TrEMBL record:
InterPro entries documented for this protein: GDP-Fuc_O-FucTrfase
Tagged with keyword Membrane: yes
UniProt keywords, alphabetically: Carbohydrate metabolism, Fucose metabolism, Glycosyltransferase, Membrane, Transferase, Transmembrane, Transmembrane helix
Full protein name: O-fucosyltransferase family protein
Region (Disordered): 1-20
Length: 481
């Protein structure tokens, strides 16, 4: 029955209320705010890795009280490249008035950079972390040797302040490295975890931390460091990736020349940081430019110009130099030729013919000019057991014309020198982890070659050959022991 159009139903069912769009928006913003608040630290670390962050409580290293400002970098590749980087690190530390953290000698190619000319290199953060991890492993294996134990730093000691990496690590990370040798696995695990966090911070994986760490993220793909070049700061470098490489590798890098003092010295954000962390400091000439560091002179700074001259040639420590001279006098005892033949490593294994050709020409000339036998010191990575069938095998078979000399790590002079190097640096307070003598064979061999009075034949493109040439240029064998 209808009554005035009203429904006959006594109880009306209410329709559910639809939330307004404004209430949905408010609720969503509240949820997003809560998520952001909870995960703020993680978000700020990974979304803004290159920004400067305040030193939060999870970085106790930043609470270390010190007035010193340090410079750390990531050496890599073979020993000769590491020495080249070390010289550049000394230069940078002097320009920026920072204490240089002296690294260990890394295993040959344990850490690789890549290729600057091909614009294919490991990122600075990853490179630093690999160096950190390898340094810790060297210590645990009892094979840690500081660069200062091999290279004589006496000539630069009054110009640049230095600190051993182990000493820096101990006070900065707040650890006792001797505990790495502890029998208690819990202590060792805890220490390794602490070192891992410390290494991650110093490598730059948490970004820059205000007044604590400035991790440089640029490398040879975008930057060439200079100093006191008039009006060149920010200018384009002459070497740039060509169009073919850009298309092939899908890259868009642009290389700029930047003054290291203007960008990292007083007045810069980096200057106030306790630790300034570089990545690689390796550089070499390429297509009329330098790949990463182009600092050749200091026209307005005599002190720095003097330092530049000193680091051009930095000899080995006296124990190593004396060992090389001793071998020349006692084992060779005659004028001799040195042949540095790199045959098995990298690009060199494909150039045997060219390498032996240069040596053969020199040897035949000496054979015609002088008395026989011609003494030849052979420095090579090819084991003597594999000389047969090569030019070295031919020389060894002609005993009346040629006398070949080699040095191995089994010889007494090498073992004794290694022990002397350790004893000379007892101030580094070696831990009971240390149980192996350092490998000094390469350094003694280079010294021997620097004394070769009949000449030197080196492998083209080898940085080892380059080091020997510098030693010969500086007449190290004419110096008094």
């Amino acid at each position: 029955m209808n009554t005035g159009g009203r429904s006959s139903t006594r109880f009306h069912t209410k329709k559910p209320l639809k939330p307004s769009s404004s209430s949905i928006l408010t609720f969503s913003l509240l949820i997003l705010f809560l998520i952001f608040f909870i995960f703020y630290n993680d978000i700020s670390t990974f979304v803004l890795p290159l920004s400067t962050q305040p030193p939060p409580s999870q970085f106790p290293e930043c609470g270390v009280k010190t007035t010193e400002r340090f410079l750390w970098y990531a050496p890599h590749s073979g020993f000769s490249n590491q020495v080249s980087e070390f010289k550049n690190a000394i230069l940078m530390a002097a320009i920026l008035n920072r204490t240089l953290i002296i690294p260990p000698v890394l295993d040959h190619h344990a850490v690789a950079l890549g290729s600057c000319p091909k614009f294919r290199v490991l990122g600075s953060n990853q490179l630093r972390l690999q160096v950190w991890d390898h340094a810790i492993q060297l210590f645990r294996d009892g094979r840690y040797v500081s660069m200062a134990e091999i290279i004589d730093l006496s000539s630069i000691s009054t110009v640049v302040q230095t600190i051993d990496f182990r000493h820096f690590l101990s006070f900065w990370c707040g650890v006792d490295l001797n505990s790495l040798c502890a029998d208690d696995p819990n202590i060792k695990t805890s220490l390794l975890n602490k070192l891992q966090k410390c290494g991650s911070l110093l490598s730059g994986f948490h970004g820059n931390v205000d007044k604590c760490l400035y991790a440089i993220d640029v490398d040879c793909r975008t930057t060439v460091w200079t100093y006191q070049e008039n009006d060149s700061d920010g200018a384009l470098d002459s070497f740039q990736p060509d169009e073919q490489l850009k298309v092939k590798k899908k890259i868009s890098y642009v290389r700029h020349r930047r003054d290291v003092y203007n960008n990292l010295g007083p007045g810069s954000e980096a200057h106030s940081s306790t630790v300034l962390a570089f990545g690689s400091l390796f550089s070499s000439s390429y297509r009329g430019s330098q790949l990463y560091i182009d600092i050749k002179e200091f026209p307005r700074d005599r002190r720095m110009q003097s330092l530049l001259s000193k680091i051009e040639f930095m000899p080995f420590v006296p124990d190593i130099m004396n060992a090389g001279k001793e071998f020349v006098q006692k084992n060779i005892g005659a004028p001799f030729l040195c042949a540095q033949l790199r045959l098995l490593d990298g690009q060199f294994k494909n150039h045997w013919k060219a390498t032996f050709s240069v040596l053969e020409q020199k040897v035949e000339a000496l054979k015609q000019e002088g008395s026989l036998p011609v003494h030849i010191f052979v420095m090579t990575d090819l084991p003597q057991s594999n000389w047969s069938g090569s030019y070295l095998g031919d020389l060894a078979s002609k005993a009346s014309s040629f006398k070949l000399h080699v040095l191995s790590d089994r010889e007494e002079v090498v073992k004794r020198t290694a022990a002397e190097v350790v004893a000379a640096h007892s101030d580094l307070q070696r831990s009971h982890c240390f149980h192996q003598l350092p490998d000094v064979l390469l350094y003694v061999e280079e010294t021997i070659c620097s004394c070769a009075s009949l000449g030197f034949v080196g492998t083209a493109g080898s940085t080892i050959a380059g080091n020997i040439e510098v030693m010969r240029k500086n007449n190290v064998c004419l110096e008094n022991d």
